[in-house]
């Protein structure tokens, strides 16, 4: 069930919203009349989804922005465009993710999973921080996963190749650790990491495993609720596990302050060298 929420119309940015969980979440939020900023890599596909959601919801405040999140220069251009386009972002849902990729590394030599699933939301969120801080009740929703593995700095730096599964799991723990750090650093922004559900029926899951356990709607509904519901107002810096339908403990390293600080320091060092 979709939970009670404030009636105030919000500006909501959802990355990776031309299919899967992101698209269904955008549709649910657009039905409520919110200003929706979709994101995708392909202009034609993005335009098609914008038109589709506008027609299905009657909401003409659905717009979009194109960027390849594995390309950090494109993320920086996306940040500049957002700063020109809107004065406030009330909700940022960092949904875009990759598991399988024909390209092992991005242009900076980083593993594609680490680049898209961790570095991209890190750079984007910090880049639009003034827009989030302009909102009286900003929320950041980071798409984590039940798959979480200790972060190797050799993998983080792109110096070691590991399996797709392991790189994906490292990227999701890194994102969760940073979510907790970001929540501590920005207490005025409600930041929650969420596992939307394991093996939902998305393109990424089908490509990776060829099967699914549950519907995309399960993931979209929890993202809708965390984005808007008053029930999550005091839950910043926590991890929601939608496999259980409740808040839960993430990987133990997500609660290790020293490990988190090392991750943030190394992340900042890598970003400065790009």
How would you describe this structure to a colleague?
This protein is an alpha/beta fold. The chain has a single domain (11-273), classed as NAD(P)-binding Rossmann-like Domain (Rossmann fold, 3-Layer(aba) Sandwich). The chain contains 10 helices and 8 strands. It has helices at 20-31, 43-57, 72-85, 112-127, 129-133, 153-156, 164-185, 203-209, 216-228, 257-273; strands at residues 11-14, 35-40, 62-66, 91-94, 139-143, 190-195, 238-241, 246-247. An 8-stranded mixed sheet has the order 3-2-1-4-5-6-7-8, with helices on both faces. α1 (20-31) links the parallel β1 (11-14) and β2 (35-40). α3 (72-85) packs parallel to α4 and α4 (112-127) runs parallel beside α7 (164-185). It is globular, with a radius of gyration of 17 Å. Residues 204-214 have low confidence and may be disordered.
Notable features of this structure?
274 residues; alpha/beta; Rossmann fold; eight-stranded mixed sheet; 8 strands; globular
